[in-house]
Amino acid sequence: MDLWKSIRRKFQVAGQLSFRDWLGLAQAWWLLLAFHMALCRVSLERLEAFTRLASVENAAPADALAWARHQQRLVSLAGRYHLLSMTCLPRAFALRWILSRHAIPSQLCIGVNKTPTALNLHAWVRVEAEAIGEPEDIAEKFTVLNGVG
To answer: Cα torsion for 11, 82, 57, 148, to the nearest 10°?
Structure first.
């Protein structure tokens, strides 16, 4: 029963996507794969510099923050249905690259949260001081190690 609900939900989500969203989803899927593979071979500093230097395709959208949120949803969706397990780091790099290509200033953030039993790391992207796709209290949960941007 739950399987059919899950399948039905996936078709509902797919039906709500425009053609442009499907193109963005495909781009996000491939970017996630590329950054996932690059993270095994390239330093974080070089990858971050690469995302910052992405050539600008278009002028920044009128409502850059709303557009960035929409792109984050597409990257998240691509990560959810990827063949590989996509963690927050390739997702953040992919989103940062997409935003840079559209002249939207952004900041890649990597944070740490230490508990008695674990050391947790998390990566996200900030646009206009908002952590895109993250809870509002993300800065309280994680101590930001960097704020490259």
So the answer is: 130
Parse the chain into domains and list their residue ranges: 19-144
Task: Quick: pLDDT tens for 53-76.
Answer: 766 666 677 788 999 999 999 999
In the 3-class helix/strand/coil scheme, how is the chain assigned residue by residue? CHHHHHHHHHHHHHHCCCHHHHHHHHHHHHHHHHHHHHCCCCCHHHHHHHHHCCCCCCCCCCCHHHHHHHHHHHHHHHHHCCCCCCCHHHHHHHHHHHHHHCCCCCEEEEEEEECCCCEEEEEEEEECCEECCCCCCHHHHCEECCCEC
- Sheet containing strand 143-144, edge to edge, reads 130-131, 119-127, 107-114, 143-144
pTM for the model: 0.84
